TrEMBL record:
Keywords, sorted A to Z: 2Fe-2S, Iron, Iron-sulfur, Lipid degradation, Lipid metabolism, Membrane, Metal-binding, Oxidoreductase, Steroid metabolism, Transmembrane, Transmembrane helix
GO biological process, one term: lipid catabolic process
Native source species: Mycolicibacillus koreensis
Keyword DNA repair: no
Main location: membrane
The reaction(s) this protein catalyses: cholesterol + NADH + O2 + H(+) = 7-dehydrocholesterol + NAD(+) + 2 H2O; cholesterol + NADPH + O2 + H(+) = 7-dehydrocholesterol + NADP(+) + 2 H2O
Subcellular localization: Membrane
A GO CC term assigned to this protein in UniProt: membrane
CC cofactor: Fe cation
Stated name of the protein: cholesterol 7-desaturase
Top-level taxonomy: Bacteria, Bacillati, Actinomycetota, Actinomycetes, Mycobacteriales
Subunit structure: Homotrimer. The two-component system 3-ketosteroid-9-alpha-monooxygenase is composed of an oxygenase component KshA and a reductase component KshB.
Amino acid sequence: MTVVANDDNVSSHNVINRGDPYPPYPYSWYAVGFAKELKPGRILTRRFLDDEIVIFQTESGVLAAVEPYCPHLGAHIGRRGRVEKETVVCPFHEFKFAASGQCVSTPCGEPPRGASLTTLPVRVHLGMIMVYHGPAGQSPAFDLDLPESDPDWHPIATRRLHFNTHPQEVNENGLDHQHFATIHKFTNFVIPKPMEIDGARLYTEYGGTKPVPIIGGVPFHFTSVLIGLGFSLVELTIARLWMVRQMVLATPVAPRKSDIYIGVAARRRFRNRVLRALMSPIERLTGWLYLQIVTYEVTRDQLIWDDKIYYEHPKLIPADGPIGKYRRWVRQFYPPKSRDGQR
């Protein structure tokens, strides 16, 4: 189990570009990596909002996410820094910082008063490293409440992409029923029950038939939960036989630019140990193959996202789906002073 450092010293980026239809960085949990990239002593540097963050794990397994610059003279901790036992060490003057962000030692005496790295709340959920962005000094407004991993599912197959889009646009796709036919070529699209909202969670269920070369039409059934604007979990049944779980998570790294973290896993179908062992390679191959499909389908969306603009008051038709309700729901993830501009 991953141990997480405390979240007391949190940061926030409240940059709002006045020309944008919405602020570039909604308050949410965002993916910054995959759990399989973690191991004690390793440092990851990732783009996050308008800068970078550093993620590291101490020798005992404590996980921390910090803003990258040493408070001493500004060196980048993620560039040539190192983990030493329970601390991360600045590459410039070798100040040492605990996972809490606090400077605990220097080569030349006591640490300066108030010397600390700014930390961000960080968790591992279903194989994804998630970091929270919110108002400075405040705890996360909501939690994902998901396990680190799930023994009923295989480890996720992963991919990371970069698109010119915003998390709100990426997640709106799941509510845009029309695009499943026009972009992804689904037929017989059905909605067994309407969208449901519970605080920071939005639930949907839908299905349809997807043409597959050689095989023909294959039925798909999707159930999904969107938690904030940074975490989307979709579980789907393919041809009433295979169960696959997918996450397509958009992390903003600049205005209208996002890193897309994709994770796909197949469900373990059997309890019997012998059958599990026999079927495991086939199930994992199914997950890997579906990752290729998801990647292809998302890049189909990218062709639209890269060139589209955002209308606050689109001219919708009933067949579009609950886009208006979705846009009202997302207001809670923006700074209060920006919400009046949201529709």
